[in-house]
Design a protein that fits this description.
The complex is a heterodimer of chains A (192) and B (431). Chain A has 192 residues and is mostly helical. Chain A is 55% helix and 0% strand. Chain A folds into 2 domains: 72 residues, Cytochrome Bc1 Complex, Chain D, domain 2, CATH 1.10.760.10; 82 residues, Cytochrome c-like domain (Cytochrome Bc1 Complex, Chain D, domain 2, Orthogonal Bundle). Chain B folds into 2 domains: 272 residues, 3-Layer(bba) Sandwich (FAD/NAD(P)-binding domain); 138 residues, FAD/NAD(P)-binding domain. The chains are: A mainly alpha (192), B alpha/beta (431).
Chain lengths: 192, 431
């Protein structure tokens, strides 16, 4: 089934609530996440990530990785295991439709300026529009401790690199050394 | 032909779904707004009020609460250790007002399930189509000889945060060097199952810096407690637990931990086997549903039986009971549980106003405890309805507590997530 056909089927389902009235709706499932990830997926921080506006495939892939303990986690692996594949997809579409509400964070302007150059050169191709919600993980305005945890996990081998990402991060580090990752994090923090 | 990107698609289907929802909600143009009266401005009450207005902005939602601010019991142990101020866990209701909720400062004294009215101490009466009762806990003041509300300024409970938290904090600060703190932990079920042990931990963290020879003795009416293995791991690492010189000692029921009486004039606690004297005594009494649940005839025993699909009372139609006061096993009496139940109730109320059967509910609980510096632990569960037995069951092979002997990095992250949890729960319930 092509992506477009699948998406159209999902849209038809969304239009006919009576057909799926018995099972918890995507909305009902997603509402249970708000106590940690904020109302409709916009976290007020300081470290839990926002998931509003997230690409549905990125959402489902992340949750499936948590289900099989493939992604380093503190609590999400235990939670992800409570849902069926269909439920994950229903939640994914709910969050995909939410507008991401971002809050300002304190960042270092000089580092952020370096980070912008690194982002444009190495990251923009996948994390488009400065890392705003799109086909890859949302980075713009994401909470800094979360970005830090994520990069720590990649760098220490606790999380598998997505395709091409390691090469790009290595290249950024070749450009700016130890400052590269802090610079990127400060840049994303500046993009609220 | 134009290529439709996934993002365009989300935008368009979002729009179509919204249109569908509009067509499915014909009440918009019909008659007077349905009225929901919410009793209690804690996690359950605030969340249900906010989400009712979110799900149907045409509802007239009134929330009645006797206090003008809400001080959270969760995170109040960090006030005891001095990690945060009482002000940092105290919140006003203006956020709810911005969501169109009419917040009334008054005390509900009765609910008439036939006339469908709520009466207040201020002499007002509120008509409702649906009433949500979320009063939290009350204390069984007659359970421990010598302990009742009149001595709670000497021997605190501090299990509803506010002035009580301040008194206990001051007592800890004034305690002599090498003094003994006694915490009396209640029998199940009670609000915040890991709370007494987090309290001992936070007090130990304070004493480690300010009163290093102090001892904390937990006298427990139970033989086991929430997150026990993780607490023991943290206490061993941080406070010498298990050594001859542990700062924290725990006495379970089997070892005589159940407390029978207290003498407030000497701060002496009589447990089943031994007598213990403390310099600071904190008694967390056995609990029951809050007073209005009894006045409104919503209880069966100590707690309020509910239909787990909707959280409607089993005793009176069109009254819903949320949070600590409800009998919602296997969900614990926690803030996150009340928040989760409130959304199920809000959706059920909205569905019924539309003449629809409420769908299957889904629930989550997450709860963090901060055992000490860079040492956070958590418990999580995803729940589903067992409609046949009217019970709430954990999804198999999911949930549970943080892993034993996790890396220092993960323990540290869980402290930061505990504080995020707090901010997001507050945001989701009342901002």
């Amino acid at each position: 089934m092509t992506k477009t056909v699948r998406n159209l089927l999902l849209a038809v389902l969304a239009l006919s609530p009576a057909l799926v009235a018995a099972a918890p709706s995507g909305e009902a499932l997603a509402f249970t996440c708000a106590g940690c990830h904020g109302t409709d997926g916009s976290s007020v921080g300081p470290s839990m990530p926002s998931i509003a506006g997230m690409d549905p495939e990125v959402f489902v892939d992340a949750m499936k990785d948590y289900q099989v303990d493939k992604r380093n986690s503190s609590i999400m692996n235990r939670i992800a295991k409570g849902y069926t594949a269909q439920q994950l997809e229903d939640m994914a579409w709910f969050f995909a439709r939410q507008r991401l509400q971002l809050l300002p964070q304190k960042y270092d302007a000089a580092l952020a300026a370096r980070g912008k150059l690194l982002h444009d050169k190495h990251c923009e191709k996948c994390h488009e529009n400065g890392g705003r919600p799109g086909d890859a993980g949302t980075l713009a305005g994401q909470w800094m401790p979360y970005l830090q945890h994520t990069m720590d996990d990649f760098m220490s081998g606790k999380r598998d690199w997505p395709r091409k990402m390691k090469r790009k991060v290595d290249a950024a580090i070749a450009d700016d050394g130890k400052q590269a990752i802090p610079a990127l994090i400060h840049y994303y923090a500046s993009q609220h | 032909m134009t290529k439709i990107t996934r993002r365009d698609f989300i935008r368009s289907t979002g729009g179509v779904a919204a249109l569908g929802a509009g067509l499915g909600f014909p009440h918009i143009a019909l008659g007077a707004a349905r009225r929901v009266v919410v009793v209690g401005g804690g996690v359950g009450g605030c969340t249900v009020a906010k989400y009712l207005r979110k799900l149907d902005p045409n509802l007239a939602v009134t929330l009645i609460e006797s206090k003008t601010t809400y001080t959270t019991c969760f995170m109040s142990n960090e006030v005891l250790s001095g990690e945060r101020t009482l002000e940092s866990i105290t919140f006003g209701y203006d956020g709810l007002r911005r969501h169109g909720v009419d917040v009334v400062t008054d005390t509900v004294v009765g609910i008439d399930p036939v006339k469908k009215t709520v009466a207040t101490a201020g002499g007002r009466s509120f008509d409702y189509d649906a009433c949500v009762v979320s009063p939290g806990i009350g204390f069984k003041w007659d359970a421990i000889d010598g302990y009742d509300e009149s001595v709670s300024e000497t021997i605190t409970h501090a299990w509803n945060a506010g002035p009580q938290t301040k008194i206990l904090r001051r007592q800890l600060q004034a305690m002599r060097q090498g003094g003994r703190v006694i915490i009396v932990a209640p029998p199940n079920p009670f609000k915040c199952p890991p709370g007494p042990y987090e309290r001992a931990s936070q007090i130990a963290m304070y004493c480690k810096h300010h009163n290093p020879r102090a001892k904390i003795l937990i006298l427990d009416a139970k033989d086991a407690f929430s997150k026990q293995g993780l607490y023991v791991e943290g206490w061993t690492k941080l406070y010498g637990y298990g050594s001859g010189n542990s700062m924290i000692e725990w006495v379970g029921a089997a070892s005589g931990g159940k407390v029978e009486s207290v003498d407030p004039s000497t701060l002496t606690v009589q447990a089943e086997i031994e007598e213990f004297q403390g310099d600071v005594v904190n008694i967390i009494p056995p609990q029951k549903a809050g007073a209005i649940a009894f006045a409104a005839d919503l209880v069966d025993g100590d707690w309020c039986p509910v239909d787990k699909r909707t959280f409607e009372s089993k005793r009176h139609k069109d009254i819903y009971v949320l949070g600590d006061a409800s009998s919602a096993a296997k969900m614990p009496k926690s803030a996150y549980a009340a928040n989760s139940q409130a959304k199920v109730a809000a959706a059920a109320i909205v569905a019924r106003f539309l003449g629809r059967e409420p769908g299957d509910p889904t629930f989550v609980n997450t709860c963090y405890s901060v055992v000490g510096e860079d040492f956070g632990i958590s418990v999580a569960a995803v729940y589903t309805l067992d409609a046949k037995n009217n019970s709430i069951e954990e999804m198999p092979k999911s949930g549970g507590v943080s892993p034993a002997n996790a890396s220092p990095e993960i323990r540290k992250r869980e402290v930061s997530y505990a504080h995020s949890w707090f901010k997001n729960v507050i945001n989701d319930m009342m901002e």
